[in-house]
Amino acid sequence: MSSTTYAWCFDHGTLHHFHAPDEPWCTAAWVPFRAASEEQAMEAKQHAYGDARFFDELPGDKQLEVIEIRETWTSTAGPAF
Ligand SMILES: [Zn+2]
After folding, report:
1. How far apart are the C-alpha atoms of 59 and 25, rounded to whole Å?
2. pTM of the predicted protein model
3. Predicted local confidence at residue 73, as pLDDT
4. Cα-to-centroid distance, 24 and ligand 1 (Å)
5. How do residues 10-46 score in pLDDT, each as one tens digit?
6. 53 and which of 8, 13, 60, 77 could share a cystine (Cβ 3.0–4.6 Å)?
7. Ligand 1 center to residue 28 CA distance, Å?
8. Helix, strand or coil, per DSSP, at residue 66
9. What phi and psi, each to the nearest 5 degrees, are found at residue 2?
């Protein structure tokens, strides 16, 4: 069984698809969404971050949020040392 994680990337300005169990190939600032389809992921992204495509377009508090989410993901899904 494989699952796809949809993540908006504020570095590339586009939606990424990550396929478990592969490691996410993009190491930039992206935010994963609990979504069953690309459409749902885009809705969730729009709801949370509006029209911002790139990191620079986010307000300061959202930039911090993105960084925090990214760090959380890395520590839970990354290799355990
Ligand atoms: Zn990316």
Report:
1. 26
2. 0.85
3. 79
4. 9
5. 999 999 999 988 888 999 999 999 899 999 999 999 9
6. 13
7. 5
8. helix
9. -125, 155
- Tens digit of each residue's pLDDT (9 = 90 or more) over 52-71: 999 999 999 999 999 999 98
Cβ-contact 41, 8 below 8 angstroms: yes
Neighbouring residues of the ion ligand 1, judged by CB less than 5 Å: 9, 11-12, 26, 28
- Can you read off the two tokens belonging to residue 12? 């590339």
Confidence of residue 81 (pLDDT cuts 50, 70, 90): very low
* Distance in angstroms (rounded) separating the CA atoms of residues 33 and 7: 6
How would you class 42 by CB atoms within 10 Å of its CB: exposed for 0-12, middle for 13-18, buried for 19 or more? Answer: middle
